[in-house]
Description:
The structure is a homodimer. By secondary structure, chain A is of the alpha/beta class. Chain A has a 7-stranded parallel sheet, sandwiched between helices. In chain A, strands 8-9-10-11 form a 4-stranded mixed sheet. The first copy, chain A, has a 3-stranded antiparallel sheet with strand order 7-12-13, with helices on both faces. The two termini of chain A are 25 Å apart. At the A-B interface, helix 1, helix 3, helix 4, strand 13 and helix 10 of A face helix 1, helix 3, helix 4, strand 13 and helix 10 of B.
Amino acid sequence: MQKIRIGIVGYGNLGKGVLSALEQQKDMELVAIFTRREPNSLGLKVKNVQKMDNLPNFVDKIDVMILCGGSATDLPKQSPEVLKYFNIVDSFDTHANIPEHFDTLDKIGKQNNTLGLLSAGWDPGLFSMARILFNSITPDGVDYTFWGKGVSQGHSDAIRRVEGVADAVQYTIPREASVSAVRSGICPTLYTKDKHLRECFVVLKEGADAQKVENEIKSMPNYFADYETIVHFISQQELKENHSTLPHGGFVFRSAKSVNNNKFLMEFNLSLDSNPEFTALVLVAYARAVFRLHSKGQTGAITVFDIPLSAISPLSPEEQRKKLL
Amino acid sequence: MQKIRIGIVGYGNLGKGVLSALEQQKDMELVAIFTRREPNSLGLKVKNVQKMDNLPNFVDKIDVMILCGGSATDLPKQSPEVLKYFNIVDSFDTHANIPEHFDTLDKIGKQNNTLGLLSAGWDPGLFSMARILFNSITPDGVDYTFWGKGVSQGHSDAIRRVEGVADAVQYTIPREASVSAVRSGICPTLYTKDKHLRECFVVLKEGADAQKVENEIKSMPNYFADYETIVHFISQQELKENHSTLPHGGFVFRSAKSVNNNKFLMEFNLSLDSNPEFTALVLVAYARAVFRLHSKGQTGAITVFDIPLSAISPLSPEEQRKKLL
């Protein structure tokens, strides 16, 4: 069997995760990693590290490119650019801009006979799939999404921008009482502060005023002002030892009822030791689907909503029905 | 907008559930219910109850038939027969015979230009989708499925066949300690008796020997012999008052790891006041997909694995991406 030939664009946490994830796939092979940095500087054991500029030279050598850049500045530029030459999978997660990103990719994919899957991962991604599944089955219900316990990179970055802060890690923590209330089926009304609390581990710069830093964090609009926020000051050493992994996860619930008032509670949840490694596994499974759908002639942009589950499985349809149905 | 025209074949608990489920769908309308009984005997408020023999007269009046018979004897005959004239959705759940049922329907659907979805519902169905999703994303892991707490019709029927039993209801109950062990991520080895216990509420016939009935239930091979089984003897009145609803549900877990030994726990669970009403909602949502896929030219047999989630949603693709992604 011909293996699916994969390229990785960007070598941060997610790119490293994809490299690891590919080791678990029998039907895929890594062709090259593309980076904006000096290829030799990555210290990789893998052979083929390429400068980003070399990317067009790999047309016909790579079936699907997995884009591992960030949603803020990388993907809005890279996804359309790479899609001119290759099928792609990205994890674009700036929710408000998804329709625009979709339209851009759809146009470019159709022009260039390529297929682009956007916004794969676990949220958006698997959590979105739980939402559309639950909503489609039960028209009369209420949705709840909780995130965590996990490290929010966006909130950690926001703390690091506060004057006097040397380093920081922020955990988003779902409130157990609220999760239990949802699970009980009572359909509680939950406000922002009811759903999550935010716990921050902060390393101060020398001479910084702890009270001032704490106040500034807690009053930060959008990020912290609407939440119960707990701030701990710790040493850089302690941060490194106890807060250097990137766990995450969360819950999607739908609490619904029939016309006869029978209640249904649906739940999907994830608990992940490593957010980037799990996201990478999702991207890799969906790269398989992109390869298969493109082979059947599909082009343009798609999301996880457009892909049948059979397309992400390494098993044959017969094996899928026998073992998993 | 033209509504999707639905027929119901069979009017037991599931057929009644589909009738209720259709009340919640804005894009569907019920055309007729087909029954083997005397149409007037059903006491229905709905107008169009038809004898089963009248079914072929509704070609061109119904887009999708939802088959609500049982898997033991009804569906193996009815699904192929009805598929000769109509697109169908069934909830065939005799696992060992799914490949054969698939092949039969695939042949008939392709010959008659119709599309048949088999084995929809929640298990097989939504639980199968969780299994294929979790397995496709994490190649290295262990699967666990727990059922309940809920009424098992098969086990209730088995008790009713015991001499001296007038009526019975059996609850399948997942063992909390085992569910907790799986959730903790330790990947326990669980034997049949570790996963579920079976609680039976039994009404004796007059003069029956309770001890003998209890022994016979507890030693019944396949059904009870391998489990911890609790037997309560109650009155018919009590059975009717406290055990006449059909709740069910369960959990699908996958406990997996990355090559770097980071652990991932995935969970999908359902808690349902009414098993037939929820199953009916699933069948109705998937009837929407069958209609759409057949409209695009698809024929033969399919399972939930072959259907993109976008096809079951009443929302437009743009709304899906905006609201649910």
